[in-house]
Queue: 4 jobs
Job 1
Amino acid sequence: MALLRLTSADIKGFKVLFTLLILCGLISYLVYNVVHMKFVTPLGVDAPLDRFSEARAIEHVRVLAEDIGNRQEGTPGLRQAAVYIKTQLELIKERAGTNVRIEIEETVVNGSFNMIFLGHSISLTYRNHTNILMRISSVDSQDTDPSVLLNGHFDTPPGSPGAGDCGSCVASLLELARLTVDSGWTPPRPIIFLFNGAEELFMLGSHGFMTSHRWRDTVGAFIDVEASGTGGFDLVCQSGPGSWPSYIYAQSAVYPMANSAAQDLFGAVPGDTDYRMFARDYGDIPGLDVIFLLGGYYYHTSSDTVERLLYESTAILVVYSRRQAMVLHTIPFAIFLLVPLLLRLPTGNLVCSFSAYFDFIKGLLHHASGVILAIIFPITFAVLRLLFSGHSMNWFANPCLAFAMFLPCSLAGLLVPRVLWKQFPLSQDVSALALSREELVDEARFWGAFGFYSFLTSAYLLSGLGGGFVTFIASLFMLPAWITFRLSVKFFGHRSLRSTACYVVPLVPCLIYSIYFGGFFAMFLIEKMGMSGAHPPPYGFFIADVIVAAVLGLVTGWCVGPLLPVVGKWLAKSSIIQFLLHGTVLALAVSSQFFPYSKDAPKRVVLQHSVRTIGANQILDVSFDFAVVDSNSLMFVFKHAPEVVKKVHGSRELSFVTANQSDPETWMGIFPISAMFSRTLKFPTRAEDILEQYRYFPHLSTDKSQFTSSGGPRRVNLEFSLGSSKEVWVAVLNITGPLSNWSFANNKLPAPLKVGNGPPSYICRLSGASHENWKFWLEANSSEALRVDIAVVDQHLTEPAKKLKGLFPSWMDVTTFTSFMSSHVF
């Protein structure tokens, strides 16, 4: 019956709406195929030796991720990977011709320095980390010749076999090294392949190369290959210093892919890469940071396997310099400022020009309010849904749900101002111009929307950001679209759908790019929400949904916004807005039937077997501690893992009130990653399981304390033993008290910070296997005691910990380790 009440204008509006939906659907399908590279056929293992073979590279990944497996610091797999890489390089060297000289080195790096990571000031000290290097050069090259560095890391984070991160990177470099030799090519400049073994410990391998290797000063450019997922196109996320690395990449890569907005956004994503060591902290070397971004569901999980790799990766690129951007990106805004004068020039009426300018400003505000509502509407619906739901992130395992839930209401938000302001208030005298009032309204709305995008483009440029291309391309294509529309009006009339089509068709390239970039950005964000952090209540429960809703609203604004000045008059009907809002409500209802997680989109859980000790052989307390890293709390986990609850808590009722919450200091061993945790829980367990496998525990001891001079600072000489720990990933020292100096980081203290509710402290992470104990000194500027809390992360698991991990459902990825903690006062 509702259909019978539709007017002819409503019916035309729905025709336009469904036509646009079909158009956007076809473009989305095209974009999906571009992103997943369905049109690229990789070469097999029998490919010619002078061609890069993806299949040959995958065989290296298979060895690293399956045959060897976990390659964390402290595990046998890391050493096995180093041996495998060096063996492969030796085999390549044996096939080299007389035109090249090949040098292969295995170096052990040590160092100590301060850095800021994830916003926290910490100190890092390491020893005995392994780097494998190959240098390919012409036979007459010199050791001091400028070289190009290619870097990838072969270590993995705890619990992950690292097929994507970063077995794929190592495999690509091995295949590239083979190709360089087997092709018979003589590189005009030396090429250095650096396979570093300690990136996951905060870029220690690259730091070791940059501070100690004899080839470091010869590096004139570099490419860092990284992975933030299991595939997709190889996006340049960081480039510089300078612009020429991007130019060379654009000219040389077969399927280049970069976006200036990626560099703007990269700093907002938790984490860092070796690019930092080469280009900023310990060098000013021009280079590229090339990263696989898709497949983020499996990043740093046990699901980062060969089967999860996204093959056939490639992409496209448009490139121009910042100097050109200074000109190009300011032209649209200049046009917006000049158009009122140019359009009203035939009338010779300056007042009419100013009136047109004021109308354009109103149109800009009109369009801006629509974009703002396009963001507010989905956020509102997201919050309302969560108020009546027991869990968030329903869309996580099914991203299409997020689009179905938030895109219709975003479009409704865009249209609401046009419905409310049907009678656009004009400042111009219609009788003085040879245009109808309706045409003047369309003109004001078009130039207002054009001004909105040109203003954003200029704002990006002035702020030093590079993401202005997204809005620049919108304003660029709007101009020919408006010209064709104005010409078509003379033939088909202002109210003709054919005139509207003449406006939309020139905007199709803009629409393709906007959906391409917006869709990729949305997918990347959705996948990363699984590790966005567990924030404190009451707002933490809403954060993931609100972020995704806001981003999809923004994407809708920049994708559909350029169409609205003309298309909006067909869509701005109350019946269409009701239809979109009803669709949103229906999608929200349907989404409640979907579970947030699956084997392909796992829920991340952290399980720590916590052991508090006194001295070398006495246990104070043992517990299993749990944490999560997204919006669904531990109560959600335990609701779906009843066997785990029964094991650690018995049949008693479990809630945040009845259970013991862990102290933030409990997670010091993985600081600053632990800053992502909230409301972690602790369950006591047996100490006998630890005593059966460990004879001695990590501990500190001192031989003497002395004043360096009368009334001067007090120096404490310490020795740190890891006890009988088996697979130590890292040890952390948290030092509080009147610390004035220490033997780490060239006797430089980092900025003090706070861990939990504790006093200001200094944190140092120690890593690297050795038969010798750590020896260091601390200096205090008063007689007040120094307190040193230590935490040692051992990846070896007791049998109870293994069994407990096995009780979780398959759609949960559980990172498990043992942490030994103790406190010492000197």
Note: The first helix runs from residue 8 to 35.
Job 2
Amino acid sequence: MDIVESIDDIQVQYPPEGEFSSADLQWTKFGTAEHHDDVAKIPYDRVEEFIIGECSNVEYPTRFHIERGRKRSRGSLKEFKIDEYLEYRLYWCSFGPENYGEGGGILPSRRYRLNTRNRAARPQSMRGCTCHFVVKRLYAHPSLALIIYNERRHVNKSGVPCHGALDRDALGPGAKKVPYICSEIQQQTLSMIYLGIPEENVVQKHLEGIQRYCGSDAKVNNMASQYVQKLGMIIKRSTHELDLDDQASIRLWVDRNKKSVFFYQDSSEADPFILGIQTEWQLQQMVRFGHRSIMAADSTFGIKKLRYPLCTLLVFDSRQHALPVAWVITRSFAKPDILKWLKALVDRVRTVDIGWMLSTFVIDDAAADLDPIRDVLSCPVLFSLWRVRRSWLKNVVKKCSGIEIQREIFIRLGGIVQSIWNGLDSAAAVEDFIKDFADQTAFMQFFKDFWLPKIEMWLSMMQSLPRASQEASGAIEAYHVKLKSKLYEDSYLDAFQRVDWLAHKLTAEVHSCYWLDRYADEHDTFQNVKETYIASTSWYRALQIPDTAVYFDEKDNLFAKVQSQKDSNISHVVWNPGSEFAFCDCAWSLRGNLCKHIMKVNMMCENRLGRKSSMSYHSFSELLTALWRKPLDDSIELDKAMALTRQILDQVQRLVELTSAKDICTVVDNLPLKWASRKARTAPRKPLTALALASTSRNERNNCSARKNYRKRRRLSRLR
């Protein structure tokens, strides 16, 4: 739209009789290229009808009050410009300017109260709305009015709707009588709506939550029902497309969700696109379950379908299920870029817990750069085989016909990985494998194109890093499968190429799903949700299989049979038992997953004599052997190794004592005493925080100056 610099170039509009709004007018850009507003020229006697029409907005019902006004008498100006006013009035939406809602900065309050009829009375209605316009009665043409709309949207400073049907936090009329709704109840209600739970059940659970604070009341029940309907309407009407251009849309999303973004870098010629997402609840779970524990990465999700691959950082909760605590959307895996978002994430966590640290980090990609992990997190790194195992098994089943051929190829692939610990030549093993199965052209073409160029890198990484356990690999894979079902169920396939869709999907549906899982487990509610959550990993399902349902081949140790718990007439055969590359004929395993039958058989193999050890145990044994052989006798290296081993032994003993103790008091009584200072040895005291130390030092300086002034006054009094 062209910018007009003269009011004379703006046509006078004559809307139809009755009330009308801004939607009924044609707006013109007036001003300069640097600063311009939307303006319209109408007869002055139609201004009141315009204001009434603006107040009757369906999506944002409100009232406009006069924030500021000035008048001039006719003939007071000898010389005037064409846009000088005879009357000037600034109309502001009555849901502003203070902001008591979430999001946006605090706008300055008015210094005085305006005695106008249209002023909203309650402070709860001051939501920070920035919608306002100016009405000028023109000095040169008193019969005409110039409407200057500075902000036509009813949004706060962050660009988020702050009242009306699209506002998540709007209190609406009768705000003083609305029952207390804490963030936990609101998140519970949102999660249930996102998961498609019927509205009647959502209202019932919502009522149970608010009745803990304000009791049962017919009016409260009615308001709770309206609240749930409003949230449902908001979710249905909300859209991820804030702008037709995806890059502009994600900028708006980041600006509106600053609390959930720990790092953002827009794409440019020099820098790649990086978006780090972490909600406040995820931050709490990262502090809770990540401190002195294990964190893992599902590093390259959606590398073929999504515009930008998704990396998920996971911690393991109280049931050892993988819990997403951060999402990073980027295509760059370069060391400087990883350092940027990883340092930002750790700094954010340590603002909550300054002593937060990891024990171990698990990776699943051999191409991952280990230096940023070791530099920032300062912890050992483990390697998980779940990704390579899943890729090989899925393509073997897909591209090879006959379950016997599929079994033999998959077991041979496992043998290639096993060769790095048996002292065999892995390159020769790969060459023999290609020759022996040359007739399987479809799979061999896939293997040569995608795996042969990088097989040496993967085997080298597997040999250099300790293996992650079967339980950890199964938990990471369970998260991957669940995330895949949540994201790829969307029928709008074009959305896969939009970052705003991915960010919206993660923070809305995926976040709500995991929040409700944890809430149901911790509060023993939503029994169906809780049972599904507990049984979501193959490790837990394997523990439910009794040992008597497993039968081993005692003759050649080639296979094991697991009897089905649902139908005793059905048994599943697990070939190559005891290995991470065991092959099962159940439907879940043939989709590429690590099934419960393989996990159960491998659990029992650990306690059976004559069974080969797992790859995780092989790597652990090699690590211990390397530590044992490294130091020379009577050397400083031996002293360092001895000190480190002693430190590890002490930590293991304390952990065993803590987990086996029935009463925590017995553990606390055996801890060594730590004196805070000499003066405080006879009384308990709390450790000083940085703020307390700063205030203490300031108090000492003030006391010191006071003593000096007191001595000076005493000397002066003696002289007198």
Note: The chain has 23 helices and 18 strands.
Job 3
Amino acid sequence: MNTFTAWCNSHLRKAGTAIENIDEDFRNGLKLMLLLEVISGETLPKPDRGKMRFHKIANVNKALDFIERKGVKLVSIGAEEIVDGNLKMTLGMIWTIILRFAIQDISVEEMTAKEGLLLWCQRKTAPYKNVNVQNFHLSFKDGLAFCALIHRHRPDLIDYHKLSKDNPLENLNTAFDVAEKYLDIPRMLDPDDLTNTAMPDERAVMTYVSSYYHCFSGAQKAETAANRICKVLKVNQENERLMEEYERLASDLLEWIRRTMPWLNSRQTDNSLAGVQKKLEEYRTYRRKHKPPRVEQKAKLETNFNTLQTKLRLSNRPAYMPTEGKMVSDIANAWKGLEGSEKSFEEWLLSEMMRLERLEHLAQKFKHKADIHEDWTRGKEEMLQSQDFRQCKLNELKALKKKHEAFESDLAAHQDRVEQIAAIAQELNTLEYHDSVSVNARCQRICDQWDRLGGLTQRRRAALDEAERILEKIDILHLEFAKRAAPFNNWLDGTREDLVDMFIVHTMEEIQGLIDAHNQFKATLGEADKEYNSIVSLVREVESTVQKYQVPGGLENPYTTLTANDLTKKWTDVRQLVPQRDQTLQNELRKQQNNEMVRRQFAEKANQVGPWIERQMDAVTAIGMGIQGSLEDQLHRLKEYEQAVYAYKPHIEELEKIHQAVQEGMIFENRYTQYTMETLRVGWEQLLTSINRNINEVENQILTRDSKGITQEQLNEFRSSFNHFDKNRTGRLAPDEFKSCLVSLGYSIGKDRQGEIDFQRILAIVDPNSTGYVHFDAFLDFMTRETTDTDTAEQVIDSFRILAADKPYILPDELRRELPPDQAEYCIQRMPPFKGLNAIPGALDYMS
């Protein structure tokens, strides 16, 4: 009651009067009407001057009617109770007046009057030790909160640092005395009541604190201006941080691509299979360990760039232009070049492996044939140069001649082998075999020797023909053996070569073809066995004849160097090599069957993963069109898809393991699926990029909607109109489509020359880079600017002018007093010194 009395007297004294007893002095209504005139600044109807009860009731009713006209509902308070001196009703009426005229007008960030007053106290006392304002009763008991409010606005009146929380009475008396003496705020509270009461009266404290608020209301304008500046500076600081981070990430990513490209473009190798396999393993390590973090870095870079551009548009700042060579398009082009180099590098590695594998096979084949040929030619030159026939008898001469004929037949039979050796050497040269020098040297030695053999053979034949006229006896059996043994021996040599010949196959059909050919060969062994027995029987017949008739030198066959033992040894070799060849072919068959299983395993998994990625991509694209629910719903669904994609990653990893088995098995084709590991990798990366890009776009749209104050219905209308004219679902509109979209939203664009000028002006806003297309974020930004208002440069300058007390400059101490420390220092570092008239030391030019 004392507080309300003091509050009333603080206003009545302006009219030269006061009250002593609140329940008695308002009974006639005269001072009540006078109080309302003082606090409202308005004139009430002329009071009745009579002293009768009905005169008093009429005056009180005039006061109550005035209160109700101010929008205050008086519940259960009537003129009769006031005239009769009802203390409870009188105090209720005074509290209603205080709420309406002293507290209701308090406004802090669109809160209620009580909440706003409490927030004002909290902000003003936040820097002070031992002050924590949470309510209007216990928080003010120790008096420090009152002292802090006075010191915040008038630090010259109270030395706050000398106050102690342990002296509440001293603190309260200090605050009340200073407020009454210097701030013209009367003592409305009793310090003893505050300290001795468990729960001080909240209304009394609010009434007294409201006097502080109105006393310092002038400082509130400065606080509002400071808040506006803080908001703008905070946006500037965040934008600068995003710009610096973008430059750092872009430089790092481009430098990594620059370092990686020479390695991917290099085609140097030691021309060996082991060297290429090592390069392939290095490439796998690169794709598995080095590239994935760079994919994430690229996505983060694009996200930061889009967020920065959105924030710049929302704060009416110019669009951010990265330094030369670090545009998003530059990074995209560099990334595209990297992926192209990866693809060509991997294709080159696989083709090199196939080429080198064939080279190794050809080199082994060359060595094998050359070894056989050189073994056959060993001693042939000495034999052809021999003059043994000159001391022979007739039969011996005939034998030598037949022997030479057999040799010529053998020589002709070996012509194919020499041609094969030369052809293989030529192919090794064409394919750039790493040891082609030694191959060429050996091939040249064989060809030179072959030419010498041809010449020696012709000369020996001429010599034998010369001696034939003298020596003609022949041995039919030796001749028959020589004729039949030579081709059979060649067949044995060729068969042994074929049985140990190496092969490379990649499909079941190829290995099955080799098995079928081998089975056909085995079917001919019966006839070969008959031929072998027939030839050997000739030798047995010769031996029998020589033993029977004791022919001197008859066991020596004059027509051939072949013996039955030679044929027997080679025939035995052939019979042993056949089952070995069977085993080799069966092993290769099992290998190809295993490769076929790996093909099917990869195809089965790829045919699951590929369609799944395509479905997810279609779903994300549909959400990105903004036609399914609110932005929050879209963001929620996109993050659900993001979680689902990351949860699906083990399937990709499993497929990578299978793909590694495919490459290790040298499997190059798979007829069971249309998908390759490369296409699945690209699809997976595109899906992740699409989800991140759509999440970023939706978050930016939410940021635009919330910061600009547009409704969900407006946003839906903008999206619906944009999608209607985006026929191809590309997320962008051509100029004609954009104009039609604006018209559909009620935007008036004339068809005359002025209308075209206006449209070109709008087009320059939404497409500043003249790309020829309008994207949805630029369209949304334009539409929100058309329907909302934002902070202007003039508003910011006016805010600085308020802080500077209308001076053309501002001092560092003023900035530090009104702004948070970090933003005050931000301004001080960036404002140039003021150089105008009446400048003082340290003055700063806030107009800049």
Note: The CA atoms of residues 35 and 317 lie 52 Å apart.
Job 4
Amino acid sequence: MASKSFPLLFLFFSIFLYSFPHQIHTFSTDQTVQTFIIRVDSRSKPSIFPTQYHWYASEFADSPRILHVYDTVFHGFSASLTQDQASTIRRHPSVLAIFEDRRRELHTTRSPQFLGLRNQRGLWYDSDYGSDVIIGVLDTGIWPERRSFSDTNLGPVPSRWKGACEAGEKFSAGNCNRKLIGARFFTKGHDASMNSGGPFGMNNETLEYRSPRDSDGHGTHTASTAAGMYVFEANMSGYAPGIAKGVAPKARLAVYKVCWKNSGCFDSDILSAFDTAVKDGVDVISISIGGSDGVAAPYYLDPIAIGAYGAVSRGIFVSSSGGNGGPDLMTVTNVAPWLTTVGAGTIDRNFPAVIILGDGQKLSGVSLYSGAPLNGKMYSLVYPGKSGILSASVCMENSLDPKLVKGKIVICDRGNSPRVAKGLVVKKAGGVGMILANGMNAGEGLVGDAHILPACAIGVTEGDLVKKYVSSTSNPTATIDFQGTLLGIKPAPIVASFSGRGFNGLDPQILKPDLIAPGVNILAAWTDAIGPTGLESDTRRTEFNILSGTSMACPHVSGAAALLKSAHPDWSPAAIRSAMMTTANIFDNRKQPMTDEANGKVLSPYGFGAGHINLDKAMDPGLIYDITNEDYVNFLCAVGYVPNTIQVITKAPANCPKKKPLAENLNYPSITALFSTATVGASSKNFIRTVTNVGHANSIYVVKAEAPKGVTVTVKPTKLVFTETVKKQSYIVTVTADSKNLVLDDSSAVFGSLSWTDGGNLHEVRSTIVVSLLTQSPL
């Protein structure tokens, strides 16, 4: 990984945002109508108005302009306004904040066993497979007829459920059952953007359903990953055969369609879905959505962070994808400390394909191609990128000369267009096959695709070799051998090259991602509206598809949270996350440190957080780090938010303590010590943590610290004693860093850990320690 620098400007800008929140707005300069989200102090409503809606319509905007009214996780509304109207509303004394509606993107079996789940014992058994826990999935909808959503052998719908099954295009109330207990769709923000001539184009109604029905496939895949029922003889065109099941097979599903094919997901609709899901009575929310630019917005301008806080403050666990911006540093998204942020790792299954060159070289890659094989026949091999034309090298639409590629296998560089779309371009130009070569950014990271022609993806090293062969041979030839499904792959897990990495660009005191889960080549249910490539020209239909992304990792954690919630109904969202983090694996199946798929090197916690989720241990973590709503408010005070800005997030008025809290004392299961690069010699920081005993009542834990070179970690006390009456204990960690002896990695950080153990290998409660040198801010 290339070395990165973190300039003064970044930290200055972050603190400027926190210190002067009402002076920063994301408004454009034109006067076209667009959607805005307005946060209102609900206490200001005059008693003459019977509802918030009546007040908003009378005071702020004509009723036809109001899109959504929010009253649960957020108080306010969204409306179609001009810039002048928005500016007028912003000056109203009851308005706390106003921001533009933004477009978000989707972050796009064997994996339950890889998480440590077993049928006859452990968390599946103790939680009754997540029975009666309700998972709300905010995504592209669902294809309800899939076997993964059967309600066979499920009991009645939980009596606390208050949701609905909304009818719409090709979807009726009858499509719900005791498994899929709720389905809604949210279009107002999307429609307002489309109708106002927004930058995203008019949605093609022939390819989309104005209903909870899924025309994209992403939502069906994530929902079945989290809570799909057992399905026998599952596979994707012969790949990954076996029994498919979600992480929490008996959990109930409620889907909230907020994302639309070809036009994305809009903040105003996402916030409305959060509001509705909380009122409906979900226990877990799974959201595999985030910004497309890899930049984390301040919490008070981020409806995912705002909606998630409203849910978490009511005891609802929220799992979110960490983004697909890796392997670059500081690309993790959805970093609010109340969110559980999930990165992606591999499992011990792969779909190998071998490229055989005319000179006898064999290059390893992956593919999910399931059509007629090449049967060893050698074809001419061509690399259009030799011309130096970028569009040809990446096989963009209309970039290939049929005279050059007809009847040949074509080498296409990755980038600028979807991987499977490149295969379509090659096929249209008359090519018989494709080799998809990674560039330096993707490195050696590979994901399988159900290509429409014989095709194989290879890493940057193999890509360089095949291009060198083409350049050095007058008549280069090749063939591709597709080898099906291979189990028992080592090493696994490794961190996916695309998985978003730390450090946390908003608040580096909080380590993100929190952990990783399976997110590469995951088999799950699929829509019947489109083929496995997602291309309109792909006429194939399959019950299951294999996808990769942090979108696929997130629902694994959502399902895991459902299991833990079922086994421990009294646990808070923070307790559930703590149990996952402090028991996570940091080693692969060779018992070696986890590595980076991009380059094969040992990876730091900036890539995997606390580690890879291990549910066999998370069920019984021994100790947990709990966090209250007040703790989160104090954290916001600590990072510089003023009470009015905090109220945008928390809904309730906030009072910051007279003595400013320290952000690093949020009771998080990891510890990040930030030191200035200006510090010379040794410098120390103290951290306070409190653990709650959820194991044996009478227990004694002793501490073990592992510190990197140049760092000293001391803990007081070194022993924690718990009894029937003493369930909580606090301790102080002092981290001392000697800048002259630190051996920093590319991220200007070093890493260690502390663990509390109770003897006999019963429990080891591990917390990652990050020691980072950052440029000092002038504020």
Note: The chain has five domains: 33-100, 104-201+212-347+493-617, 352-484, 628-666, 667-774.
